[in-house]
Amino acid sequence: MYNLPISSYLKSLNADLAATAKRWSLIIVAVAVYAVAACVTTGDVVKVEVVTEDAYKDLKESERTALEEIRKSSAAKKVDSKLTNVIDKTPQLSVTEYLEKYPETSAWVSKNYRVGGYDVLNIMIYEEEDLSRNALQVSADGYITFPLIGRLKVDTLTTAEIGKLIASRLAQEQFLLDAHVSVMVADYKSKRVLVLGTVNNPGSYALQARERVLDALSKAGGIWRRTGISSKSSGSAGKKGLIIRTQNPDTPEESKIVINIYLKGLLEDGDQTANLYMQDKDVLFIPAAENFYIIGQVKEPGSFALTDREITLVEAISRAGGFTPIAARNRARIIRVEKGVEKIITVNVDAITDAGKKIQDVIIQPNDVIVVPESFF
């Protein structure tokens, strides 16, 4: 069957087996070397550690100052947890959805102001100066006391309805049969709105007749825009504002809804659809923009608004104009707070860009601080 003697055949077979074993050995060694190299490279590219006391010793004084400013700014932007819980648990509507669902509510608010407790009224009876009264305050339970006719409940009535009520009672008591009564609100105190978030003067403000979102923002001093470290965002406010509205207040049917307002359209594009009329007990909340920050050896350090898509460290540095010539490109850091713990993520940017290791690039999160220190050489 074989042309070679058995001894020659066995010798040839042993040589083939030896060659095969040698090839497999080389393959195994190559795989092992590659695996070790990959591990070493990963460790060099991205390193995560908890912040220690000397973590920032190589930063310049100006960079430490900027870092402290960012920390204070981030702390000031934190939202009260109770407000966050209300927003998260409340049904949310766009402006269009709200107007479609509650058209009668919007129309009613736009045309009428309903008097309430603590409002101050001026009431004039034409040709009866002795009966006219200025600075007449509505009591907490919604009553006024008027000459000749005594106590009148005016809570939830419009000024026109109050005028008709006074004229009717004067005629009923046979004092004046055809009285012409004019009622004006001299001071609005019964209804209030709360303006919170990134506004210059957050707080509670009296709600007057026919006041809208822009009126409430104006009372609160407008949108707060940060100073100090330069901003590459459209301001410090986020893309939307929220109206937390109480429906059917002080009744068994009381409930809340959240109306989302697109701020850019309202403030910059002149879209008045979102300039809704405010209602009693409304909370107008302007959330802060989700930003990240870059300080140190980049050409344009500052704060940057996070876009709708994810952005990586390399892309973030590009938005800041790239590195300066003296940047420590292999020691870029991301300072990140997770669950109350401050961490430093050290990244070798050159290892990502030069070696094509895009998969190891780090996704930037809100409030990340990217620090690019100066090179030692």
From TrEMBL:
Protein's membrane topology: Multi-pass membrane protein
InterPro entries assigned: Poly_export, Poly_export_N, SLBB_dom, Soluble_ligand-bd
Keyword NADP among record annotations: no
Subcellular location: Cell outer membrane
Residue stretches making up the Polysaccharide export protein N-terminal domain: 110-185
One Pfam family per UniProt: Poly_export
Lineage top rank: taxon: Bacteria
GO terms, molecular function: polysaccharide transmembrane transporter activity; porin activity
Gene Ontology cellular component annotations, sorted alphabetically: cell outer membrane; pore complex
Domain Soluble ligand binding, chain residue ranges per copy: 193-223
Record domain SLBB: where: 291-372
Gene Ontology process terms (BP): monoatomic ion transport
Keywords assigned: Cell outer membrane, Ion transport, Lipoprotein, Membrane, Palmitate, Polysaccharide transport, Porin, Signal, Sugar transport, Transmembrane, Transmembrane beta strand, Transport
Membership in a protein family: Belongs to the BexD/CtrA/VexA family.
The protein's name in its UniProt record: Polysaccharide biosynthesis/export family protein
Organism encoding this protein: Candidatus Desulfatibia vada
